[in-house]
Amino acid sequence: MLFIDPHVHMTSRTTDDYDAMRKAGIVAIIEPAFWLGQARTEAGSFKDYFSSLVGWERFRASQFGIRHYCTIGLNSKEANNEALAEQVMELLPLFASKEGVVGIGEIGYDDQTAAEDKFYRLQIELAKELALPIQIHTPHRDKKKGTSRSMDVCIEHGVDPSMVIVDHNNEETVKEVLDRGFWAAFTIYPRTKMGNERMTEIVRQYGPERIMINSAADWGISDPLAVPKTAALMQERGIPEAHIHQVCYQNALAAFGQSGQMNEDDWLNPITIDQREKFSGSTVLRGGQDPRIDQIDSKIIR
Ligand SMILES: [Zn+2]
């Protein structure tokens, strides 16, 4: 089975992760722009980070046979530094229209402050202008209210729910998100509330329409193999294979494919891995390592 992980922060991960992900069947990933654990103090730090999302990280993924896409945005936490946020807003249009950018994200609310609301709304307008999907990070505190509010604001701005992926759902939020016509994404963190056991039950109860699963793996305790592992559990628990394919692959492609930047052909056509390649003079190889040079035909693995 082939998988897409539509929310994973590979900048924080290792080449071993890339290797294991490809072996587990992950063919494409989406890396949302987010918070790096420590607040940035200069607009230039955002600029370089966005550049690496559309440049170096995309290259690094390709060296392991994975297609890398990203969403570009100002995360809700750093929206609270208003002076800096204003400068970041000026950078966003330059990056959001680059190749491989499949949406504006991850944006939304953290503490649900006035500044977060302001920059969330400005970025919704930017997404509308560029006709890009929106990837919403819902708050961990006061989640139910924050999730409803995130959707209310999209509607207020005239965005069609089919262009909005609401992320980090749980049993309390899923019904409203689906009823209102939005995409409902779920993050599977190891040893937490939304483990893969509970995810299996959600898919059983709600079916596969407009639901997608991601790992949101980053610099915290997380698992970049969460999508294939959850798929395996679903299979074990009797969820039909067609439904697993929908929530672990097809829905992410349908939602983010609306950007016009993500096509199945990108990975179904044989991918050549040539680790002799360089990006601005840098390679993933270290002294004396043998480059991997081969071709993966995902149509065969499928
Ligand atoms: Zn994230």
UniProtKB/TrEMBL annotation:
InterPro entries: Metal_Hydrolase, TatD-like, UCP005295. The keyword Metal-binding applies. Signal peptide: none annotated. GO terms for molecular function: hydrolase activity, acting on ester bonds; metal ion binding. SUPFAM superfamilies: Metallo-dependent hydrolases. Pfam families: TatD_DNase. Keywords: Hydrolase, Metal-binding. Gene3D superfamilies: Metal-dependent hydrolases. Transmembrane segments: none annotated. The keyword Amino-acid biosynthesis does not apply. Belongs to the metallo-dependent hydrolases superfamily. This is TatD family hydrolase. It comes from Rhodocytophaga rosea. The lineage of its organism: Bacteria, Pseudomonadati, Bacteroidota, Cytophagia, Cytophagales.
